[in-house]
Write a structure and sequence with these properties.
395 residues, Aspartate Aminotransferase, domain 2, Aspartate Aminotransferase, domain 1, globular, binds pyridoxal-5'-phosphate
C-alpha cells in the first residue's frame, strides 16, 4: 500500500473567522444577492474606518481597482507609467491595457521595494527626453510598505501622481515611531497619495474569495471611479452614457464575506508576524539563510514569510528547496520574477534591475497561512534544514 501523503500545507490559503457565514446569511435573508446592497456599503465604511482613508470603493479585484485608478488619472496612449520591477504583473498590466508604456524601477536592498533614488533617476531622464509620465506605482511587497514619504518627495517636483499598490499590505502600517509617539498610518493612507489599491484575492491576508478596494483622500476621484465601475451610467432614468466604463463592482454576497474578515484582520496580522518569527527562530542561525528585512519606516503584515538562500553557503538553492518541500506536500514559491525580465515586457525600459534579479534568484516564499501551527512551521523548517545537510556542505 502506498504511504499516505502528509496533509498539504498551502502557501496562503483562505482563513475564515466565523462571522462570514452569518453576514452572508443576512444578505440572503434580505435578498440583496447582487450586485450591490447594504453589505457593500458597510464593507466600504468598515474599510474606510480601519484604514483612515476617507473614500473607498469596493470592486471585483485589486486589478480592477488599479485599472480604475489609472483611468481616473487620465492614463492613455503615449503616456509612461513607472512601476516597481519586483511585483506581480497586475500592478502593471492595467497601465499597458490603457495604452501606456510601462517603465520599471529597481528595488532597494533594505526594503525590497521601489528604490526612491532609482525613481528620481528615471523621472529625471525620462522628463529630460520630453516624455509624459502619468503615474508612479510602488508596490508594498509581501506586505511591507514602500517608502512613501521619500517617493512622494521625489515625485513632487515632476508633478507625477503616486498610486500605491497595497494589494499585499492590508493591515500593515507605515510611518515612524510605531507604538510610541505613533506617526504611522495604515498602508495606503499616506497623505498625498493619489489613490491606493487593495486586494482580497483568495491568497491574501483577508479575502472575499475575489475582490478589491480602491481608496483615496480624493472624493472626486472615487466618485468618478464609482461611476466607471458601473458601466459609466449617467444620472438619467434611461441608460445614458457619455464615456465607457466597466462592470467592476463587488457583489453584495462577497462584501458580506469581507465584513466578517474585517473583524479578524488585526488578529491575522499578528499571526502572520508570529509565523515569521517562528520561521526566523527555526532557520536564521543556518549559514546561508536570511530573511526579508523589516524597513525602519513601517510595520509589515508579513503576508508571506520570504527568505533568501545563498547556495554556496547553505548547500542548496531555492529551487531545490521548493522541490524538496513539494515532495512532502508543502507549497512554496519563488519570489516574483522581475517585470523587466518578463517576455511580455521585453521592449520596456528599466532603471536598474540587479537588486530585483538577485532577490528573484535567491528568494523563496514559505507557507504562511494564518491557520498554521508552530508544528507546521517546524515541519517546513526541518525539511529545509535537512536539505542543507543532505548536500554535505555544512554541519
Ligand atoms: C502586488 C499585487 N498587485 C496586484 C494584485 C492584483 O490583485 P487581484 O488578484 O485582486 O486582482 C496582486 C494580487 O493578486 C498583487 O500581489
Amino acid at each position: 500500500m502506498a504511504a499516505q501523503k502528509p496533509p498539504r500545507l498551502f502557501l496562503s490559503p483562505p482563513h475564515m473567522g466565523g462571522q462570514e457565514e452569518p453576514r452572508v446569511a443576512e444578505a440572503f435573508a434580505s435578498n440583496f444577492i447582487a450586485p450591490l446592497g447594504p453589505q457593500v456599503d458597510a464593507f466600504e465604511a468598515a474599510f474606510a474606518a480601519f484604514t483612515g482613508i476617507p473614500h473607498c470603493l469596493a470592486v471585483s479585484s485589486g486589478t480592477a481597482a488599479t485599472h480604475l485608478a489609472l483611468r481616473c488619472l487620465g492614463v492613455g496612449p503615449g503616456d509612461l507609467v513607472l512601476a516597481a520591477s519586483l511585483t506581480f504583473i497586475a500592478s502593471v498590466s492595467p497601465a499597458v491595457q490603457l495604452g501606456a508604456e510601462a517603465v520599471f524601477v529597481d528595488a532597494s536592498p533594505g526594503t525590497w521595494n521601489m528604490d526612491p533614488e532609482r525613481l528620481r533617476e528615471a523621472l529625471t531622464v525620462l522628463t529630460g527626453e520630453g516624455r509624459r509620465i502619468k503615474a508612479v506605482i510602488p508596490t508594498d511587497l509581501y506586505g511591507q510598505c514602500a517608502e512613501y514619504q521619500r517617493i512622494l518627495e521625489v515625485c513632487a517636483p515632476f508633478g507625477v501622481p503616486v498610486v500605491a499598490d497595497c494589494a499585499e499590505s492590508v493591515g500593515a502600517r507605515c510611518g515612524r515611531n510605531l507604538g510610541q509617539d505613533d506617526e504611522s498610518c495604515h498602508a495606503g493612507a499616506w497623505p498625498g497619495l493619489a489613490a491606493s489599491i487593495f486586494s482580497f484575492n483568495g491568497n491574501k491576508i483577508i479575502t472575499t474569495s475575489g475582490g478589491g478596494m480602491l481608496a483615496s483622500e480624493d472624493g472626486a476621484l472615487i466618485a468618478h471611479a464609482r461611476k466607471l465601475s458601473q458601466q459609466a451610467r449617467e444620472h438619467a432614468p434611461h441608460y445614458e452614457h457619455v464615456e465607457l466604463g466597466y462592470n467592476y463592482r463587488l457583489s453584495n454576497i462577497l462584501a458580506a464575506v469581507g465584513l466578517g474578515q474585517m473583524e479578524v484582520l488585526e488578529a491575522r496580522v499578528a499571526k502572520r508576524r508570529l509565523i515569521f518569527r517562528w520561521y526566523r527562530e527555526a532557520l536564521e542561525a543556518l549559514p546561508g539563510i536570511t530573511f526579508m528585512p523589516e524597513a525602519a519606516t513601517g510595520k509589515a503584515n508579513r503576508w508571506l514569510t520570504v527568505m533568501l538562500v545563498d547556495k554556496d553557503i547553505f548547500g542548496a538553492d531555492p529551487g531545490e528547496l521548493r522541490q524538496a518541500l513539494e515532495a512532502e506536500n508543502i507549497e512554496a514559491r519563488p519570489v516574483w520574477k522581475p517585470m523587466h525580465r518578463q517576455p511580455v515586457f521585453a521592449g520596456c525600459r528599466a532603471f536598474g534591475g540587479a537588486v530585483a534579479e538577485d532577490l528573484f534568484t535567491r528568494g523563496l516564499c514559505l507557507p504562511s497561512g494564518t491557520a498554521m501551527t508552530r508544528e507546521d512551521v517546524a515541519r517546513v523548517a526541518d525539511i529545509i534544514r535537512a536539505q542543507g545537510r543532505a548536500l554535505g556542505k555544512r554541519a
